[in-house]
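RECORD TYPE: inverse folding
INPUT: structure tokens
STRUCTURE:
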């Protein structure tokens, strides 16, 4: 935009005045009613009128803004418009999510990968356009995936990460460079894949089969989004199991198997060997398999499957080890050993022995991805220091301390207990507990009983949650009548637990706290109530 001098602006204004007057005398313009007092006006008044009209026509209303000011305004971000656009995109994300949610739930595993393969084939097999590090196991998958992804980013790679479930927004499931996919990219990805999903849905239903499930659709979206980004590597966590998990259409050159325990027994079985047989389905030909310390019979299943595929195995307790751990402010200092070397005094900002074990798995997986050599010490130090894992023994309030953890099975609760007792000096801990109806409620409560002084039983806001009265009945059998309180709403349960904790602190000199535990959904809702959502 060119600048005008004052003289040029004045000439332009006079020209507009002349044009205005000429237009007023044109025969096709209606007569302007007489203005009282205008007739016979003095020359001075006429001059004032001319000056006023000239000022009007030279103003921004007619002549436009000052060029310098206009440039400044145009350079400023339009925060209001951006906020509206973001809100509209988020609303579209929500609409798409609800539409996909109407499909078969993610835990409803269909023993076939054909539907996912068919959609991805129509899309050009995006899952083959980047290497994949694939994770399975029972507990620790998400934390380990986040550690792996953070180390890869510290090495300068662009990353995709697919994990489940999400805490606050479904966009968390598909992360690019460590951040949830943007609302616009989420919507664009869905619009890209939706026609092909519909084609395969129609084909499957015509043959008497089901539509793609909720999790299958999100797997397709993740693989497509990663290719579109594009990413250098994808870190992919199974939804459940391994062999028939929708994510298993990718060929992970690195497979990570965290500790295998009992969970999702309705779908995976009650026997650890049977569960392990499903998990090892992610092992591909000549892959590298990074394995957490396992029950002896589970380890046998893993080693057998690895041998069948000619895979290299790196085992915690053999090739991998946590040599030392020291509790530190906000986490722990660990010394880790891999086949490539020993990494001393690495700060991990997460609590508990289980997180140190996750760290050595993540480190070994990234070493293997880069060919097996040692990583630069600075990369390891900075990578681990930048790790976070929300709702994994997370402190969301102090005085009294309120801890939130997503543990939802007996093995997870056992790891949690050890971490709480090690990292937090709490002599009176009140639990806020809610579990899903398909979980081992008695086993979870039995694991909590030794280190919780009392509990407030509640439920998460989902149809999958166990009825609060049913859970309370089990809790009374485990804790005894006097240690169990009931509040159907989570906010009421938190208020009750904080009151109980503070009352105990007033009666005796003690350190008190509240622990929210039992399900991922409950943990997410608690985080939201404390402003962390």
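DESIGNED SEQUENCE:
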């Amino acid at each position: 935009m060119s600048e005008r001098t004052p003289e040029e602006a004045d000439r332009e204004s006079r020209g507009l005045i002349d044009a205005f007057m000429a237009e007023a005398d044109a025969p096709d313009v209606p007569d302007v009613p007489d203005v009282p007092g205008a007739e016979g006006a003095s020359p001075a008044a006429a001059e004032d009128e001319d000056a006023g009209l000239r000022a009007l026509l030279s103003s921004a209303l007619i002549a436009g803004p000052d060029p310098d000011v206009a440039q400044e305004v145009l350079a400023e971000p339009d925060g209001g418009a951006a906020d509206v656009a973001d809100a509209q995109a988020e609303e579209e994300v929500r609409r798409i999510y609800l539409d996909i949610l109407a499909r078969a739930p993610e835990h409803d595993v269909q023993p076939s990968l054909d539907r996912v393969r068919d959609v991805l084939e129509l899309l050009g097999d995006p899952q083959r356009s980047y290497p994949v590090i694939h994770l399975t196991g029972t507990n620790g998958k998400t934390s380990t995936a986040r550690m792996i992804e953070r180390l890869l980013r510290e090495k300068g790679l662009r990353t995709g990460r697919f994990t489940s479930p999400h805490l606050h927004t479904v966009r968390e499931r598909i992360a690019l460079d460590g951040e949830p996919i943007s609302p616009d990219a989420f919507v664009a990805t869905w619009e890209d894949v939706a026609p092909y999903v519909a084609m395969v849905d129609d084909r499957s239903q015509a043959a008497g089969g089901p539509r793609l499930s909720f999790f299958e659709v999100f797997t397709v979206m993740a693989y497509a989004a990663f290719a579109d980004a594009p990413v250098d590597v994808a870190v992919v966590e199974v939804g459940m199991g391994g062999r028939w998990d929708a994510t298993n259409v990718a060929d992970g050159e690195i497979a990570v198997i965290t500790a295998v325990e009992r969970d999702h027994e309705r779908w995976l079985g009650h026997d650890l060997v049977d569960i392990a047989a499903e998990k090892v389905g992610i092992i591909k030909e000549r892959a590298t398999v990074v394995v957490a310390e396992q029950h002896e019979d589970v380890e046998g299943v893993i080693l057998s499957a690895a041998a069948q595929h000619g895979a290299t195995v790196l085992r915690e307790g053999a090739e991998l080890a946590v040599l030392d751990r020291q509790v530190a402010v906000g986490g722990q200092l660990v010394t880790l050993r891999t086949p490539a070397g020993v990494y001393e005094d690495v700060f991990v900002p997460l609590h508990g022995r289980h997180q140190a074990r996750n760290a050595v798995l993540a480190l070994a997986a990234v070493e293997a991805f880069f060919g097996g050599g040692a990583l630069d010490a600075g990369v390891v130090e900075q990578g681990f220091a930048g790790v976070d894992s929300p709702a994994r023994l997370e402190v969301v309030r102090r005085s009294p301390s309120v801890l939130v953890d997503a543990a939802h099975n007996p093995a997870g609760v056992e790891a949690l207990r050890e971490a709480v007792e090690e990292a937090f000096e709490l002599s009176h801990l009140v639990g806020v507990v809610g579990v899903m109806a398909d979980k081992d409620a008695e086993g979870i409560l039995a694991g909590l009983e030794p280190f919780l002084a009392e509990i407030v039983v509640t439920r998460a806001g989902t149809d999958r949650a166990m009825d609060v009265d049913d859970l309370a009945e089990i809790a009374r059998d485990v804790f005894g009548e006097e240690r169990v309180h009931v509040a159907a709403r989570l906010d009421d349960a938190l208020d009750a637990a904080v009151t109980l904790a503070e009352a105990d602190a007033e009666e005796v000199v003690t350190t008190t706290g509240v622990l929210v535990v039992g399900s991922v959904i409950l943990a997410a809702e608690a985080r939201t109530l404390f402003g962390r959502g």
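NOTES: The longest strand covers residues 321-328.
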